[in-house]
Structures are given as C-alpha cells and as structure tokens.
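To assess whether the prediction recovers the assembly geometry, we first specified each molecular entity separately, as shown.
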Amino acid sequence: MKSSGWKIVIVAAWISLACTTKVSEWVLLNAPADRYLLAYFHQGALPDPVIRQNREIEAKIPQANLLFKQVLKKDIDRPYYALYYKNRLFARYDDSRALAGLTSSPMRKKIAAELMEGQLCVLLYLTTGNSVKDMKGMEVIRKTLSASPFGKIITLVELDSNDPEEQHFANMLLNVEEDLKTISEPMLFGIFGQFRVLEPLLAKGISGENIRLMIDFFTADCSCVIKDDLPGISMLCEETWKDPVPARVNKILDENPQLMHR
Amino acid sequence: MYDSENGNLLSANSGEYPVVDGNEVYFSGKAITGAKIQPGKKAETLWKANVSATNDLIRAGDDLYAADSSGITALRLVAGSPPVVKWRYPLDKNVVRLLAANGRLIAVTGDGAILVFGDSPVSKPMVFPRQKPRILKSTAKAGRIVRNTGVREGYGLLLGGDISLIEGLLATTSLNLIVYDKDSARIKSLREYFDRAGVPAERAGFLHFGRELPLLPKYFSSLTIVSDLTCTGSGNSSIPEELLSAARPYDGKIIIMAKGKEKEEALKRFSSAGFEDFTVAEGKDYCLFARTGPLKGSSTWTHNYGNIANTVKSDDELVKAPLGILWFGGSSNLDVLPRHGHGPGEQVIDGRLIIQGINSLSARDVYTGRVLWKREFKRLMDDSWLVYYDESYDEENPLDPKYNQVHMPGANARGTNFIATKEYVYLIEGNRCNLIDIKTGETARVFETGDDSTKELGYIGVYDDLLILGNNFAEYNGMENDSIRLKNPLFTDYNLTASRELLAMDRFTGKMLWRMNANHGFIHNSVIAGDGKLFCLDKLPQYLETKLRRRGDEPPVGSRLLYHDARTGNIIHQETKDVFGTWLGYSAEHQLLLQATRPSRDMLNGEEGKRMIAYDVVTKNKIWDKEIKYANPPILHNDKIYTNGEAFHLLSGDPLMEKDPVTGEELKWSFKREYGCGIVSASEHLLSFRSASAGFVNLESMEGTGSLGGWKAGCSTNLIAADGVLNSPDYTRTCQCPYQNQTSLALIHMPWMAYWTNSNYTWNGSPVQKLGLNFNAPGDRVSSDNVLWLEYPFTAGTPPGIPVKMDTTGFRKFRKEPFMISSEETPWVSASALEGIRSLEVTLTKEVTVPEAFFTIRLYFAEPENKKPGERVFDIFLQDRKVSAGFDIAGEAGQSGREVIKTYHGIPAGKTLKLDLQPLKGNTLICGIEILRETPLSTIETDK
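The predicted structure of the complete assembly is given in tokenized form:
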C-alpha cells in the first residue's frame, strides 16, 4: 500500500450494542414506530370522486406512520377501508368520513407532546364508565405514582373508551391484545418511545406491584434482548419525533444512583 | 470505513472487500467500484465496471484481476477513466484466490488446481496432472506396528525416515504421517520418492531437523513411531517430553523400536519425563507408551448447558489465558445448522466434539479437527424444520451470504435433541431415540417408548445410567390467536418448550423404569438432575403466567417445582408457591437448586431475567429469593453465579464485589461484552462468549474483557472449553461480517503468548492507590502483583477518565512483541515505548483537599533500536527533583531489548505526579510508569 496522508482503515462496521441508555430513551431515539396500512378495497374501476378522496387521504399520510394502498378485490359486496397493523385487521370503515381523526386526536397530541418533553412514559387509564371500577383502579395508580421516585416524570391521563373524539385511538388501544374488546374492565396502558403501547394491566392486574414492574421496565438499561423483541405495539400518530428533550429520567438516576438497574 | 488515527467511523457500508492502493480503493463484488479518498476522508466513487469480482480482486502493476465462479477478467487501470477489460478467461472451475508474483498471475481453484498465467496466450498450456498414486505395498514392519498399537487412523509422527515402514503405513492405514529425520538428503529423497508415487502431501510430509526437534503441537499424534533412537537425542534432550506431550489424549501411542540396553534406556528416559497419564508395555524389540484417559484437569461439556445440572460451566481447569492456537481448519462449516437458528450446541466428551447439521451428526477430533465420522439421518431434517431452521434458510444455496435464516429461538427454547456420552450419542428422531456408537457413528440400537400415543419425543437427558425422555410436547391451546403470537410467531411458539410426560429408561437396555405426567408441561430448560434427584418445573410458559398476572388472574392450579428420586421417579418434594420461571440449575457442591428464567437474545418472549430463588435441597428451605436482573442463563460457578456482565454469590444472591484496581474501593464485579448473539458459558478459569470476535474474561484476574481477534465466534454459542481445549467449530456459514478468518479452530493455554484486554475501567476520581501506564501498548493488562496497567495513549474503547498531560519533542511510537524483550515478569510493559516525552503529568485524585502522600514510582525501559551505550542518555526528574542523572538505557541494560526498571521510593505527591525527562544525548524514551501509594515513609532510592 502506498504511503498516503490518510490513515483510514476500511473494514465493515460492527456496532457495539452494549447500552446504558434507559429503555424509554433508547426506544424514543432509535425505534421508529411501526407503520399501519390503510387499504381501500374495491371491485373495479374507481369513480373520480373516490379517486380524489383517496388522493386527499394519501396526501395527509406522510405525516403519520401509515401507508395507504388501493387493492382490487373482486369478491366483495362494496368497497371499504380497512386498517391493518402487521397482518391484523384493526378496523373496517365503510366510507371515508369514518376516517376523520384516524391519525391524530387531542389525546394523542397531548401524549406525544409529553413524550417529546422527556417524560419517562405516559400512563393512560382507559375507563369503562363504571365509576366504582374506574375509581378503584385510579386510586391504586395515584398511590403508586406518588410513592415512586419517578412519579414526577410520569404523566397520567384518563380516556373514556366511549369518547367519540378518541374513537380511533381507543380502538387501537383495544387492539393491543386480541380479546380486550370483550373485557369490561378499566385498563392501564404504558406508553413510551415513539408512541409504543405495552400490553395493559387490567382489572385486579392494576396493582402497585404491576405498575412498579412497568416503571422498572422503562427505567432499566436497554439491552439487545429488548431491542430484538420490543414489547407492545405502535399507535398511529402524526408526530415526527425529531429532537426530543433529553430524557428526564437521567437526572433522577444521576442524583440517585441506587435506583439504577439493568 | 474507519479513520485509523482516531477510530471514528467514516462511512458504513462503503462496499465489498476492498483493494487499497494509497488514496484509491477498488471495491469487489458483483461489479467493481473505483473510489478515491478525498480530503475530509470521504470516499468518492469514480467509476463502476460491470465486471464480477465476487471471489477475489487484486491489483498487480497497472492491472486489476477479478475472479468469480465463471472465470478471470483482467482490467487495465486508466487514469481519469473507468478501467478497460484486457482479457477474460472463462473457466468451469471456481477460482477462489488470485496471486501475482514474478510476472505471473496465479489462480487457485476450489478443487485445488493451480493455473498460472503469463503475459501472452499460449496455444497449448502445459498441464501437470495430479499423479495417480501407484499402489503401495504393505510391509511386515508396518504390519507389526499396526498390530501392536491398534492405530490405523489419525496423525502419525515418525522419527526416522524408514522407507519401508512409511510405505507400509501408507498402504495399510489412513494415517496422515509427519516424518522427521536428521539426514537432509534422506528427507529429500523420501519426498521425491513418495511424490513420484503419487502420495499427496496431506498424507505424508517429510521434515529435516538438526539437533533439537522443532516444537511440536500438543496432543495431535495418534501414533508416534521412533524407529531411529538417535532422533531422540541423548541424556537431557527434551525430545521425550516433546513426544509425550504431542501424544493424543485418550488413545495416543508412542512405540519405540529398540532392543536390549537401548530399549531399557529409552524406557527410563521416557518414563522419567514426568507424564503420569501413560501406561507402559514392552515387547521383545519395542516399548509402547499409551496415553489413556483424559488430560488431568480437563472436563467434558454435554447436554445443552454443560451437563444435566444446567451449570453452564465446564469443570475444565486447563483452558486459561493466555491462549494460543492448537489447530485450525478441519471440517467444512456445511455440517452445522444455520447460525441464527440456534441449534443445539456442540458437546465434547472423550476427545470428540459432536455437532449437529441440518440432517446430520458429526464427530470431530477435539485435538486436530479431523472429522471422525459423519452420519445423515432421514428424519432429522423434518424434526429440525421450524425448530432450528425455517423457510428463510436457502437450502439450495447454503453458502450464499445473503441474510440466510432469520433469527429464531431454536434450542434456546426447545432444548437439545441429542446427548453425547462415553458410549453413545442419544439422538431423538421423531418418536424414537437412536443410540449411535460414539466411536463409529453407526446405529447400535433404537429405543421406543412402546406407547402408541408417542408422536414425538421432546426432552432428552442422561443421568448416570438413566435416559430421561419427554413423551410428546405439551401444547398450549389458544396461543395461536394470542395477539403476541400473531405479531411475533417465531418468538412466541411455546409448544416445543415442554413435554407432557417424562419417562426414564435404563440407557443401555431400554428398560422402562418410571413415567410421570405433567399437570401443564415439564419445561425442558428446567429438567435437571444431581445427587440422585431429578428436578423439574411443571407449569405454563412464563409469558402466559405474566399475562395472567397483568390481568390480575391467578395462575392455574397445578404449577409445581418437583424433586424426584431419579431412579424411581417418586416425588420426594414439591413446591407449589413461587413457582416461576423456566430454568433450574443445580450446584452439587452446595446442594443448592436455583430457580430462574433463561433470558438471552433470540429467546422466547417473556423470559426476562428478573428474579432468582435458591433452595437448599437437603432441608428444602428457600435460602434466598431476590430480584436480580440478568440476561444470560445463570452460570453456576462454584460459589458464584455469573450472568451477562455481572456476578452474584451463590449462597446469598448478593452482588459479587471487587476492589477497584486503581483506588482500592469496593465496587460491583462486572464485565463488558461487545456485540454478539449467543450466551456466555464458563469453565474453571474463563468466561467465554462472542464479543464482536471471540471474547473471554479471565476469572483469575480483574483485567476486563480479552479479545481473541481474527475470527468470529458463532452466533450460536460455540466457544466451549472442554477436554483441555477452547473449542470453536466454525458456526459462521453465510456470515458477511469481514473477520479475517473463517474457520474451525481450537485453542489451548500457552503461557508464553501475549494477550491484552479492554479493561473498560472508569476512574471515579478517588485517590490512586496503584496504577500502571503502559506506553503505546495495544491494550490493558493486570500484572502478577495485581496492578492494572492501562494502555497510554488511551485509544481503544472508552478512556478511563484519568487525566494525563504529556509534552513531547520528536514524538515516536514503538511496539514489539513481548517475546522479543528480555524481562523476568513484564516483557509486555517493556515491549512498547514512547520516544520524545519531555514531561508527563498524571492526576492522582479529583478530591479537592488532598494530603500529600508518598509513592513508589517504577519506570520501565527497554531500548527498541540498536542504540549503543552513550547514544540515548537523559536525566530523570520526579516532582521537579532530579532522581537519576545521565540515565543510559543501553548502557545499563547491556543490550537492546533488555528491560531496565528504575525504582524510586518516597516520592511525595498530592493531586498530581510529574515526570520530566531531559535529553542529554539522543531523545528520551520510556516504556511504562508504575505508581504505587506507600504507607510508610521511605527515602531510599534503589534501582531494580
């Protein structure tokens, strides 16, 4: 090799995945949200109004983690829209008006803003309308958070599963597990990263111990085991996730190193 | 592409294997890309030539030569333009390597042919065909030796070039012979004779030696024949030790052809060499030394985690740092499962390494890599389908380096399907268990359950003379609709992780001894045995229990941790509370049962390591129950538990503490592991694992993570210490990572080898008690008196955070191999040096208020150049006080390359220590500085 001014070593890159970044921060910075698929199933040639409306839908999509496709399917009675997450059908919509608010809603904006502000996570309490059940769960949550050293960097929000403005969001939440729609119990979802939602605690599972375990997960050192198989599912939203505020958990852990754990 | 000045990544994925020529780089691959490194260190693509160089690419003169599986292309480089094709030579052979020398282009093909190209075509190239070997004759001499020793295969070492003996051995055995003789003319003549006879070089090699035999590899020779006693030297020659050391454990033989007094003399010399593991026999005209049994201090590795107790540890005491290569090459990597499928790991017993392929099992010699046997099994492919590989594996192109086989849990979840023992390999095939003779690979017997309902055998384990089998997999209904299963099917298939029933047979006769049904499923990673007991967990997979807990539901009744009498199957004890996890491990030394999960990369969902419980199996009491985070199956190492980066005391669950090597304060024991799949496994002295390349932690010393560079340990765990060897059968088939070597290999302890670690040390600012700075060293190391020597300048890994200021003039770096330095204990300090240091200031504490203390400072020197006394002379100052005047390294050492250590006691220092070197003649040079805090006051200055 001729002598050169540049001392450059050309090798293939390997990247150390050893990590002391906390799970919540690593996922926010490095794990893009999964994309949903909105499919428009139709039997044949599309009339102009439909073409126009689908173009409008598609124009809005780049802001969200959503892909839009028109799919020819001859064995259907009438055209419809269908929302998929991976291979699972989350919802079916008979016309485009039902898509209003699909990719954004006030609650999702609020949650995204909290995550971008460096909060450890957002706990979303999905209520049933049964005040006895709902209050019981909320008591446990509040008590646990007030006793947690991370309580101040966790945002707690409440969502009525029947709120029409949040119907799409509630539907996605109830699709996190296949049987949640059949269960009439309050549910507590942990939301972190780029709007990743963990499988919920529900009914008696909303306990101090389980909530602390969830917080433990968010505050643990990230590891290849977690990165390989990130739990939960993504939600649809329009946040870009660019330049979030540095994670607030690091300050708490720097001041309280005894709280650090893997 | 990295900047070699500072290690910064310049560009990821610059191209395929490059040819570097100054500022220009030619990337190989399906097309050749020419690039130029511009100021700013960016590679700018200049041109792309549509010529395939998938096999090799070289530059010679003004030409590039490219090879792929269809032939060779020569291109002429043209300044400022893409290259022009000069000629193309199509071939139906696969060219794997190109070389250029002496005006010739040499191409080597995969089948061993060599093609030589000149500067112009010839009408009829000369062909030197491989000679057909002539038929060799058996000879009486060889016949007697084979009869007396019984050895017909392996490596043979001959001292003495007896042509009739060599010919007879080649004719009647499959030995690969290495022949040494002191007569160089005889050696030459033997080479020519057997070459003319068509004997290939791998069957017979002929070597001349002078007074002493060159160092022989250990353990390789199955049969050593001394037909010329003069080759063993006389009296105090070390050749007998060499030969004994080179004999293969378990069955290596040394036969010395001698009679009468000569035989007696040979017997005496060899017997007194100090090797205890040989038996001796005599005949009229020979004596025979037979190495029997394992190496003392070695141990086996069987089942998927070392043994049926799941310790994840071999008791092997011989494998320790430093390590050196015993052999490399050996078998093809086609005979292993796809690397991301995490098939069952290799098992090592009696000098044999047993390893599974897609439809095969093979046995390899641990000491030479030789394939002993390979068997294919009809049903094994079906059994392994969707367990150890799936449709993402390209069976038609098993060597294609595209992403060939996605990650799946494999044996991490299902467990192994074979067990190696001294007599047999027990291999599950469908609903039967084959007993494969471990010596020959032939099927000796087949065991069946005798139960028509047996569809498949699940678990397999061997304990003493018991064969434990799982009868039918436990199935977890409803999981197929679980959303997590739909999201991540590969990592949520729990149906192969447990067996519905366990049964025990006599492993030699197949007689059924007992059977036991599960309430839920006997989880395979929890079925273990020790001290006459069989332990197991009968429960749901951890994910399902976690889901129930999340919903506030109780786990179903019937979950239990069981202790059985291994012989009768009777339940001795059961735990029904705190029955969590999927893993059990047993410490026979402490009679302690550990309950845990089995977390790692590429493992089923729900196996996070969060908790461990230890039980005393005698009292049945819980000893401790702790929240412990871990990411490796817990390794039971005597009285410790090691995981992926941490350690705990076995008897208390408390974190293992160590002393900060620099400040002496207590901190948690830990180690750092770089990128890589596969679990950490252990032997007595080492933890071994993939850490980008192959990595290890020396448990005898707190010096960080060592790297065995140059090759990649497998994605499936394959770095196993057993039988005195660190085994690494190649498990990287289809990997694209550009490690320098892709091969099977084995390493053994070689005390004279240099090794370095990355200590991953971070200083907390507390006062330094002891510290070494090893100038221009390639890594860190701990000395025999437990001083941590850090490389300086700090280049590799994260700097330790110890502020060091350095002023230099005429700065140069030197580095040699430690074996080139004459030093009693620290050649690895004095092998590297910095020239031109004028001043060096080391911060000793970050504390604000610092009382002055006294230090012993040792300065290490060795002259790396051929300087004569008087050519390099300098004064030495510590804390601005001259401590040595006119120091002359070569003058004091007497020669270059010999270490000189200058020791200064009672040096006062507070926050910093300052060293000044003032040149009087030539430039200054120093290899290392050792800083030791004293307690007593001392003002005596001595030179070591």
